[in-house]
């Protein structure tokens, strides 16, 4: 039975070593829902290929000529915000890991265990779930505890009560006009609250606001 095309994850693979690309391609293409549609030898080529190919997921090495994987990730996400990115690297390194998260990568996979982790990481990325190797989880916890000890713990309430009200109503599908009428504020004020919400939470659109509202317990899934 063939897999419908719409369920196949189209992958851009970027690594400056042809042997590594071949090995990674073999791992990925054993799976019926994963297909490598383009291969790049460096970050700049990856961006060029992203312009000409329909891609769902990019698997990037960190250390590459011309543009590194980190630089290419930032450019790729500016070009195609909907694409997910995984970092595939030999570096079990906290600094690289945090830089990858900052660049917008949704997962960090070590080449040494790619045969075990990469397929699961690809699928997690497409579900918008982060994929972290065990050492990365430890690094995140340690980083959080360091910030707490240094008095840098983020406040429990990120949003104002009014912003929470607007977020809940946006997530429930109400229009700006309806929200304005329900909260006795102007449509312009609703738009300003919405822009503030997107900026504060680092989100892009109504769908992401809705997901956040569900996670925050403001509405039921």
From TrEMBL:
Q: Which PROSITE patterns match?
A: HTH_LUXR_1, HTH_LUXR_2, RESPONSE_REGULATORY
* Start and end residues of each Response regulatory domain: 10-126
The family database entries (Gene3D superfamilies) matched by this protein are listed as: 3.40.50.2300
The record's listing under InterPro entries reads:
CheY-like_superfamily, NreC/VraR/RcsB-like_REC, Sig_transdc_resp-reg_C-effctor, Sig_transdc_resp-reg_receiver, Tscrpt_reg_LuxR_C, WalR-like
SMART domains from the UniProt entry: HTH_LUXR, REC
An example Gene Ontology biological process:
regulation of DNA-templated transcription
The family database entries (SUPFAM superfamilies) matched by this protein are listed as: C-terminal effector domain of the bipartite response regulators (SSF46894), CheY-like (SSF52172)
Annotated GO molecular function terms are: DNA binding
Q: Does the keyword Transcription apply?
A: yes
Q: Which UniProt keywords are listed?
A: DNA-binding, Phosphoprotein, Transcription, Transcription regulation
Keyword flag ATP-binding: no
User: Which Pfam families does the record cross-reference, listed alphabetically?
Assistant: GerE, Response_reg
Where are the 4-aspartylphosphate residues found in this chain?
61
Which protein is depicted? DNA-binding response regulator
Provenance organism: Streptomyces populi
């Amino acid at each position: 039975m063939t897999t419908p095309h719409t369920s196949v994850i189209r992958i851009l693979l970027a690594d400056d070593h042809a042997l590594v690309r071949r090995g990674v391609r073999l791992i990925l293409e054993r799976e019926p829902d994963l297909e490598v549609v383009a291969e790049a030898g460096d970050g700049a080529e990856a961006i060029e290929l992203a312009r000409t190919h329909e891609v769902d997921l990019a698997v990037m090495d960190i250390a590459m000529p011309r543009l590194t994987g980190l630089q290419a990730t930032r450019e790729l996400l500016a070009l195609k915000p909907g694409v997910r990115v995984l970092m595939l690297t030999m570096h079990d390194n906290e600094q690289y890991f945090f830089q990858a998260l900052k660049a917008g990568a949704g997962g960090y996979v070590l080449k040494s265990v790619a045969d075990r982790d990469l397929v699961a990481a690809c699928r997690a990325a497409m579900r918008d779930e982060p994929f972290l190797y065990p050492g990365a989880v430890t690094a995140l916890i340690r980083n959080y505890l360091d910030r707490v000890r240094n008095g840098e713990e983020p406040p429990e309430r990120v949003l104002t009560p009014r912003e929470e009200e607007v977020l809940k109503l946006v997530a429930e599908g109400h229009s700006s006009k309806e929200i304005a009428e329900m909260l006795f504020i102007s449509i312009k004020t609703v738009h300003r609250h919405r822009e503030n919400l997107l900026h504060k939470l680092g989100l892009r659109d109504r769908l992401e606001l809705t997901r956040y509202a569900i996670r925050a317990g403001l509405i039921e899934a």
